[in-house]
Specification:
The complex is a heterodimer of chains A (about 120) and B (about 110). With about 120 residues, chain A is mainly β. Chain A has strands at about 5, 10-15, 20-25, 30-40, 45-50, 55-60, 65-75, 75-80, 90-95, 105-110, 115. In chain A, the strands form two sheets. In chain A, strands 2, 4, 5, 6, 9, 10 and 11 form a seven-stranded mixed β-sheet that branches. In chain A, a hairpin with a 5-residue loop joins strand 5 (about 45-50) and strand 6 (about 55-60). Chain B is mostly beta strands. Helix content of chain B is about 0%, strand content about 50%. Chain B is built from no helices and nine strands. In chain B, the strands form two sheets. In chain B, strands 1-9-8-3-4 form a five-stranded mixed β-sheet, with no helix packed on it. In chain B, strand 5 (about 55) and strand 6 form a beta hairpin. Chain B is globular and about 40 Å long. The mean pLDDT of chain B is about 90. Classes of the chains: A mainly beta (about 120), B mainly beta (about 110). The interface of A and B includes residues 93, 98, 104 and 114 of A.
Chain lengths: ~120, ~110
């Protein structure tokens, strides 16, 4: 099946610094990728839609200047958390949609990245 | 997107069949029903998807009545490793939009 990887799997950073998280589709092309955030014991919440070659679309309440998304190729999207604060500590998960389209399930999720801001 | 309602938690024992029901009264004609499984600190994993009647794969069955206002995920002979959160999602086919996850059902399997 299709595989999506994320790097790093976990990261600890100091308050005020920036952190970049990579999401890669390993064996398929993805014109669209999605970024989710999940706080402990809560469900996944969609943050933004990343489109290859164009600007990302952010969900209401998500600061686009804080969460920078770049989708420079058909297999890579990056999420940069700028000026991170402890409240940004969360589990960040990406998903990638197979460009060939099809049914709903053709969104494949990465393993997630645990961000801890101290 | 149609809103879904699932039990917050369920308990069962190894070897039993587990059925998790999801209500989606406002499902639209073009909507599919998809179930995901999530283990702690991992991304969701696709389990099964259906539109109507019954769908079966190697891990689960999905039962959808004619009115499609609910669906039931059936896990045969569960094991301890099936302890996870199960999410029911309803949405239009194509996967073009980000997914809206509800609270999910925390299934706990005991020995």
């Amino acid at each position: 099946g299709a595989v999506v990887s994320q790097h790093p799997s976990w990261v600890i950073c100091k308050s005020g610094t920036s952190v970049k998280i990579e999401c890669r589709s390993l064996d398929f092309q993805a014109t669209t990728m999605f970024w989710y955030r999940q706080f402990p014991k809560q469900s996944l919440m969609l943050m933004a839609t990343s489109n290859e070659g164009s600007k990302a679309t952010y969900e209401q309440g998500v600061e686009k200047d804080k969460f920078l998304i770049n989708h420079a190729s058909l297999t890579l999207s990056t999420l940069t958390v700028t000026s991170a604060h402890p409240e940004d500590s969360s589990f960040y998960i990406c998903s990638a949609r197979d460009s060939r389209g099809g049914a709903l399930y053709e969104q494949y999720f990465g393993p997630g990245t645990r961000l801890t801001v101290t | 997107l149609a809103k879904t309602t699932q039990p917050i938690s369920m308990d069962s024992y190894e070897g039993q069949e587990v059925n998790i029901t999801c209500s989606h009264n406002n499902i639209a004609t073009n909507d599919y029903i998809t179930w995901y499984q999530q283990f702690p600190s991992q991304g969701p994993r696709f389990i099964i998807q259906g539109y109507k009647t019954k769908v079966t794969n190697e891990v689960a069955s999905l039962f959808i009545p004619a009115d499609r206002k609910s669906s039931t995920l059936s896990l045969p002979r569960v094991s301890l490793s099936d302890t996870a959160v199960y999410y029911c999602l309803v949405g239009e086919g194509g996967g073009a939009d980000g997914l809206t996850f509800g609270k999910g059902t925390h299934l706990i399997i005991q020995p």
